[in-house]
TrEMBL record:
The keyword Nucleus applies. Belongs to the UTP25 family. The lineage of its organism: Eukaryota, Metazoa, Chordata, Craniata, Vertebrata. The gene is Diexf. Component of the ribosomal small subunit processome for the biogenesis of ribosomes, functions in pre-ribosomal RNA (pre-rRNA) processing. Essential for embryonic development in part through the regulation of p53 pathway. Controls the expansion growth of digestive organs and liver. Also involved in the sympathetic neuronal development. Mediates, with CAPN3, the proteasome-independent degradation of p53/TP53. The keyword Transcription regulation does not apply. This is U3 small nucleolar RNA-associated protein 25 homolog. It comes from Gymnorhina tibicen. It is found in: Nucleus, Nucleolus. GO terms for biological process: maturation of SSU-rRNA from tricistronic rRNA transcript (SSU-rRNA, 5.8S rRNA, LSU-rRNA). PANTHER family: ORF PROTEIN-RELATED, U3 SMALL NUCLEOLAR RNA-ASSOCIATED PROTEIN 25 HOMOLOG. One of its GO terms (cellular component) is small-subunit processome. Residues 84-134 have a biased composition (Acidic residues). Residues 342-352 have a biased composition (Basic and acidic residues). Residues 135-145 have a biased composition (Polar residues). Residues 295-562 form the UTP25 NTP hydrolase-like domain.
Length: 761
């Protein structure tokens, strides 16, 4: 009975989004995971609501892919699930208290033993799992019986993915017509309209062949705010943009409501800029929107969640909404013309659509980001307080994408950039369709009735599915005209394969017609040339080879590409506040593919022997790649080295033990992964020797890890060491750490480089 009661209490303690995440994946989000719950409840996820039969066929298809394939694939990670933030914070406080006295450390050691024994009891409870599962199903059934629509309540879990099918006719482009008062009936007559110029341009076969085969020609330009820009294109005739010093909203050809709402919505950012108040853009927004509005691809690798993140979000929301409103206005206007046309009129004049309706795909990492995007859309559509936008399913959206203040663990001490990135609802599995028609917005629209799709990489991946699966769908990606990938650096910490999988399935010919009127489809879509017209906007906090590869190899926009390529002058090493000698050891590799093995061999042959001596204790080895971490862990076990390890999948008790053993010197080495540091940002105490197996993905992690040495005041500052392994293929990461000048010198010389940082360098 005790186990049954414990299972019931644990289930009731879950929030709505935690229950939903459990059903979808078989595990909780890495930020909030509870391993015990997974062991008790992983067999109850197939449970569905009584209303599931009433959902649309499209919703059923998406849900089945999500419940079957996503669940079974991720179920294998149950034994290595990360722990909840609140529980780990308790362990962190225990570890800090343990440093105060030896007696307290012994006491906490006995408590930790109890925790380990508790873990064994959990394993022994697995055969009785069905009993706890029955209890869970009873509780969930009771929750449903208590109310008719508790799925809208943020305190209750969503049994099945919801799509709005009630407002289909109201938001249908085929059955609606342009309202005269909308003020954009003659939008299609504006010859200088960037939207019309880009979408109506008819490419020839030889131009498409050039775009596909010929190398790109590039040119450089220096802009006041963005800095150095690289313009590239495969077509011979491409013009280099010039930065506009002043922008008149009327010259941007915005849809009429946006001309009046944008200055009001963007006012919060203008107050901190020393420019005339009548300017509707900040200097950064002005230059970014100038590129966006030209329909060129854009890569901006200097997004910062603390400083310019919201500015950038507002800029691309304006561009996406302007594109959708213009496209829909053109369709509605042509609907009116077709209705009033004379018999026998040529219908080729009304080709204004793609093979499917979705036009804009926005990839963001967390639900909080989607919430802010939708709120920005609503603000841009509301002309004044009297003319409110009619938003369908707004209450449900706030409940599922909003955050509960009580869920955040109290008294967390984390860096400001961490708080900015992980603010609000940080669930990373979601997708939502948004339909916009004149003065109304429809949330949770089925994908094939949506204008904009907002999703996370994992959320879109579970719909696309994998090759060989019976139920998978990616036809809705066939006619995407604008792809926005925001905060791309975070996907490196999640799963970059999801992004690559998306890029392989976007702008392909659909397998089904989905009821399209082919007489209204543009010839570019019928010719399967959609990818040559798609604009890609890529925003990241850093330059990384994997992100660069997506921009260079998966973007084929005929209008060209613009990439911001500023080089760091100082580097994050200047933020190291402890007096620490840095030794950068260069390893040689013949190619990018061989550098992984070359680094491992260099480490075990040249670096590790120097640290095997007992005098070199308290050595932390920072490993960015999880695969390298596993390889090193296995080698250390094989060699019977005295070490402990922490990664993103390490359990709570094991993290606490590893930190305590390392602090007390009972373990000579600590293997430490970058993803663990990204998600937790714990201060590891007791470090005397640092080894960066590879340069960090985030340059500021270098100074953060180095500054951890000051956390332990043991009077042994002179013995501190820091060793960094690098190769010629790490030029971008190296420049972000030491600066461009030092990087050039280090890459030219094959000798080890010794730097001594005093905190003022």
């Amino acid at each position: 009975m005790g186990k049954r009661r414990a299972g019931r209490e644990l289930l009731r303690s879950l929030s709505k989004k935690q229950k939903k995440h459990l059903r979808e994946f078989g595990e909780e989000h890495p930020f909030y995971d509870k391993l015990l719950l997974l062991l008790l409840l992983h067999s109850c996820f197939p449970f569905q609501s009584e209303d599931s039969d009433k959902s649309s066929a499209e919703s059923d298809s998406e849900t089945e892919v999500e419940q079957v394939s996503g669940y079974h694939k991720l179920l294998a990670t149950l034994k290595t699930s990360p722990e909840s933030e609140s529980e780990e914070e308790e362990d962190e406080s225990e570890s800090e208290e343990a440093e105060e006295s030896e007696a307290e450390m012994d006491s906490e050691g006995s408590q930790e033993t109890g925790e380990a024994e508790g873990g064994e009891e959990d394993k022994n409870d697995v055969p009785e799992e069905e009993e706890a599962t029955d209890t869970a199903e009873q509780i969930l059934s009771q929750e449903q019986a208590d109310g008719t629509d508790k799925s809208c309540d943020p305190r209750h879990g969503v049994i099945e993915e919801f799509t709005d099918v009630k407002h289909e006719s109201e938001f249908s482009l085929e059955t609606n017509f342009m309202e005269e008062e909308s003020g954009d009936c003659n939008a299609d007559k504006r010859d200088s309209n960037p939207f019309k110029q880009h979408m109506d341009k008819e490419l020839e076969d030889k131009e498409i062949e050039k775009t596909s085969t010929l190398p790109k020609t590039s040119s450089q330009s220096q802009w006041p705010r963005l800095g150095q820009l690289i313009f590239s294109s495969t077509l011979e005739k491409h013009k280099t943009l010039k930065a506009d010093k002043e922008v008149d909203v009327k010259q941007l050809h915005l849809h009429k409501p946006l001309e009046s709402t944008w200055p009001k919505v963007n006012k919060q950012f203008l107050s901190s800029v020393d420019k005339p108040v009548d300017s509707p853009f900040t200097p950064l927004q002005r230059e970014l929107f100038c590129i966006m509005n030209s329909y060129r691809d854009l890569f901006y690798p200097e997004r910062n969640a603390l400083t310019n993140g919201e500015e950038i979000r507002h800029a691309y929301c304006l561009h996406a909404l302007n594109h959708v409103l213009k496209a829909n206005a053109q369709v509605l206007s042509n609907n009116t013309k077709r209705r009033d046309r004379k018999p026998g009129t040529d219908t080729d004049d009304y080709r204004d659509q793609g093979l499917t309706r979705p036009k804009v795909l926005m990839i963001v990492p967390f639900r909080e980001c989607a919430l802010r995007i939708v709120h920005t859309f609503i603000s841009l559509l509301e002309v004044n307080d009297k003319k409110k936008v009619d938003v369908s399913n707004k209450k449900r959206f706030k409940g599922e994408f909003g955050s509960d203040p009580e869920e955040k663990p109290p008294n967390l001490k984390r860096p400001e950039d961490y708080e900015a990135v992980f603010a609000g609802n940080i669930d990373d599995h979601f997708r939502i369709g948004v339909a916009i028609l004149q003065k109304s917005m429809r949330l949770y629209a089925p994908f094939y009735s949506s204008d904009i799709i907002i999703a996370s990489p994992l959320g879109i991946r579970t719909v696309i599915g994998a090759e060989g699966e019976k139920k998978r769908d990616f036809d809705f990606l066939s006619s995407i005209e604008i792809l926005i990938i925001d905060q791309a650096d975070i996907y490196l910490m999640q799963n970059w394969e999801h992004v690559l999988h998306l890029m392989k399935h976007i702008n392909l010919l659909p397998l089904d017609s989905h009821g399209v009127d082919f007489s209204r489809v543009r010839m570019l879509n019928l010719n399967n040339w959609s990818k040559y017209y798609r604009q890609t906007l890529l925003f990241s906090a850093l330059q990384d080879p994997q992100i660069n590869s997506v921009f260079n190899k998966h973007c084929f926009n005929y209008a060209g590409q613009v990439a911001v390529r500023n080089v760091p002058l100082t580097g994050s090493i200047s933020h190291v506040v402890v007096q620490l000698p840095h030794v950068f050891r260069r390893l040689e590799a013949e190619s990018v593919t061989s550098v992984i093995d070359a680094r491992f061999q260099f480490f075990i042959d040249k670096v590790l022997p120097e640290y095997r001596d007992a005098i070199m204790s308290h050595t932390l080895i920072y490993v960015p790649s999880y695969f390298d971490y596993v390889r090193l862990r296995n080698y250390f076990k094989k060699e019977d080295l005295n070490f402990t390890h922490i990664c993103e999948y390490t359990k709570k008790a094991a993290v606490c033990r590893a930190r305590r053993f390392f602090l007390r010197g009972e373990k000579q080495f600590l293997l430490f992964t970058e993803r663990f540091h990204f998600y937790k940002r714990y201060t590891i105490k007791g470090i005397r020797n640092l080894i960066f197996y590879e340069l960090p993905t985030y340059s500021h992690f270098y100074s953060e890890i180095c500054n951890m040495l000051k956390a332990t005041d043991s009077g042994v500052d002179a013995t501190w060491t820091c060793t960094v392994l690098y190769s010629k293929y790490d030029a971008q990461k190296l420049a972000a750490v030491v600066g461009i000048d030092r990087t050039a010198q280090m890459l030219q010389s094959k000798k080890n480089v010794h730097l001594f940082v005093t905190g003022e360098n």
